Amino acid sequence: MNRIVIASNNPGKLRELAALFAPLGIEAVPQSQLGVAEAEEPHDTFLENALAKARHASSATGLPALADDSGLCVPALGGEPGVHSAHYAGTGGERDERDERNNAKLVAALAQVSDRSAFYYCVLVLVRSAADPTPIVAEGAWEGDIVPEPRGGGGFGYDPYFQPWGSSRTAAELHADEKNRVSHRALAAAALMRRLKP
Fold first, then answer.
1. Which DSSP string do the residues of 126-151 spell out, in sequence order?
2. What pLDDT score was predicted for residue 83?
3. How many domains does the chain have?
């Protein structure tokens, strides 16, 4: 397997996944380059959504497909934003506008909450074909706290507010190489690579 389609149009996820797979000699092609539209994500779990996206991209291209479904989970908010992380505060506007609204809603929801712990969760699903009966599934979690004020200009989504445990910096203050070693997506990718090895 030297070429796979990435079932996402999220530029941040595409950058991170391409960087994670490049050292393995696997060309990760964004689905948009192959004319594949976004799949529906109607499910209540990250796993079901990732599997639906992977099967959709593989069916449309005939290539093996990798899908990521991920988000921020805050236990004090009952797991929200969870699978709705990308559209926590609505679906309108450009990605940057949505990120800003999502972060504002999150900070407001936690304003009177003492437990600000949170974790990013990622599930990766790789299907060799659209009808693959044994998809490879890997997951990763990255724990931290939500800080009240944004810090850093890197990353995307909730990164300016997410401070990983054991770090004095937010995810948005980490260099991309650092984040790609420790993030939920990096942990899931490492688990996936272990599954791929013979």
1. EESSTT-SS-EEEEEEEEEEE-SS--
2. 96
3. 1
pTM, two decimal places: 0.89
* Beta carbons within 8 Å of 63's beta carbon, 6+ residues apart: 3, 4, 5, 29, 34, 57
Which range marks the domain in which residue 101 is found? 3-196
pLDDT along the chain (198 residues), means of 10: 86 78 82 90 92 96 94 97 95 91 96 96 96 96 97 93 97 92 91 80
Structure tokens at 34: 């192959």
Catalytic residue among 69, 145, 159, 177: 69
69 labelled catalytic: yes
Instruction: Say which residue the tokens 């504002």 belong to.
Output: 104
CATH label of the domain that carries residue 162: 3.90.950.10
Nearest-angstrom CA–CA distance, 191 and 84: 24
